[in-house]
């Protein structure tokens, strides 16, 4: 299915979802279950709006349409999640209208579901929502990987723009802070990422809570050596960058390696983080200049 067909299918489902949401909003003496159903459908609708945009972009970019947004298009295959969601919406609509379509609604409607029915419906909606969200995340990571080569080629030019080509002092200060290129190390690890993996982790409740600032601020990921923790961490870093793209947000990282004990010291880790924070923006922070001159004079 091409981008235009995918977008058209999504539009049809969005229209049906809007009708069902209007019905749910008109229910009198609404039970708590209705709020959950309303929330799940609203969340899926939001994801579908993003999917519609991506599908339309894929159609406009004919050269990249065949390889981009693969995960999103896969959801619109016959019998796929998009059709399943449409079927669930039709079931909801039929409950509010004996003819299977909502035509004329009174101001208030009765809640037509038994608890067992709504429990099964909620499970289905939650599962479908996870499919749509993971598809969007998968495409975002794929795009990040596709642009990795261009980012590496332009890294020196970007650094020159930030620091100024003739600003040798800034370069000296950055090298004094830490000589390691943490971004390059991260990109080397991320190049090992295989498309379609790690989606289960990015869509987990633990990651959602961590990104939302809920509970513990540490996302702990234990595992045996060689299990893929480093690559998974690199994928999370790219996910965070994509989720918070504004210039006021800085994503800093520190990597510890068993075979590089010098990089595992507290001084090395802190100086690496300071370097990454210092380089953010058009110029180095004044405090970094002052610290450099204070520590190196005499």
From TrEMBL:
User: Which Pfam families does the entry mention?
Assistant: NPHP3_N
Superkingdom, natural source:
Eukaryota
Q: Which UniProt keywords apply?
A: Repeat, Signal
Nephrocystin 3-like N-terminal domain segment(s) = 196-294
The residue range of the signal peptide is 1-22
**This protein's record includes keyword Repeat:** yes
Q: PANTHER family attached here? A: AMELOGENIN, NACHT DOMAIN-CONTAINING PROTEIN
Question: What name does the UniProt record give this protein?
Answer: Nephrocystin 3-like N-terminal domain-containing protein
Species annotation: Canariomyces notabilis
